[in-house]
Amino acid sequence: MVAGKGAGPLGEGIGAFHLEQRARGVSPHTARAQKGDLEKLLNHAVRWGWATWEVSPRTLRGFALELGERGLDPASQARILSTVRAFFKWLWETRRITHNPASGLRNPKQPKRLPAFLTEGESQALLDLPPIVDFTSARLACLLELLYASGLRVSELVGLDLQDLLTDQRTLRVLGKGRKERLVPYHERAAEVLSAYLDHRGVHLAAKALPPSPALFLNQRGGRLTPTSVRALLRQALEAAAVRARVSPHALRHSFATHLLNHGMDLRAIQELLGHASLSTTQRYTHLGLDELARTYEKAHPRAKG
Prior knowledge:
CATH architecture of the largest domain: Orthogonal Bundle
Number of strands: 3
Subunit structure: Forms a cyclic heterotetrameric complex composed of two molecules of XerC and two molecules of XerD.
Pfam family, one: Phage_int_SAM_1
Radius of gyration: 27 Å
Largest sheet: 3 strands, antiparallel
Organism: Geothrix rubra
Protein name: Tyrosine recombinase XerC
Mean pLDDT: 84
Oligomer: single chain
Low-confidence stretches: 1-6, 279-289
Structural class: mainly alpha
Distance between the termini: 69 Å
CATH topology of the largest domain: hpI Integrase, Chain A
Subcellular location: Cytoplasm
Strand order of the largest sheet: 1-2-3
CATH class of the largest domain: Mainly Alpha
Helix content: 40-55%
C-alpha cells in the first residue's frame, strides 16, 4: 500500500474497511485478496490526485479501464472490481461518502469458452476400444456407451437404478437437475452392451457373495459407483485409445449433442434429451412426444445406424 502520508484520508478509509471486515469474521484468504485489490485502487487514486473517496462514477471507471490496459485477464478484473464495489458500498453505508460511484460499475465481458467435445472419429475409437471379457471391462464399455448414447450427466448416470431401465422400450428413466424426471432413449448397440454388463454384474455379485444392490453401476465391493470413479475410468480409457487426455465425462455429453445436431436432429429434440431448460437464452423449451423423440434420435445418432 502507498505510504500513509502519501495516502492520507484515502488510506485511512481503506484501513477502517479492513478492520471492520476482520471484525465481521472474513476469512484470512478473502482479507488478503481484498487488501491486494484495494492497494491497486489506492495506488491509482494517489497517482491521479484523488483527495477523498467522494469521486464520480466516470472517475472510478478510469480505474476499471486501467485494469484492462494493464493486461489483467477478465476474471482478475472482475474479482478486483467486486472488492471495489464492496468497499464503496461500505463507505456509503457508513456515511463516509454521500453517493456510491461504484453502484453501476460493471465487470468486463468474460470470453465465451466453447465446451470440449470429441470428434466422431475420436468417439468411435474410444467406444470400440474395450473388449468385454469380465465385469470390469463390461462396466467400462457400458459406462462409455451410455454416456455417448444418452448424453447423461455423470451424476445422472451413476444415479441410475435397475428399475430405471425400461429395456422393452430401450429407454432410461433419468432424475435430472431440480429432481426433474425425463425419459431418454438409447440405441440398439448400447442395449447390447448394457445386456452384456448386466450379465457380468450378476456373475460378479454371485462370485463375491455380495448382497443385491438397486444401483445399476457398481464398484468392485458392490457399492454404487461414484462420479469420481467414472472420471478416473474415462481418463484411463482416453489414454488407452490415444485420444486427447484433457477431456472430461461431460465432454461426451457435449459430443452427443454436437454429433446429433451435425446429423440433422432438431435442436428442440436435443434440448429434451439433455434435460435442459434451454440450450440457449433465445431458444424456448419445447416438449416433444417420446415416440417422435425416439424416431428422430434413431435417424440422427451415428452409432444407431447399421
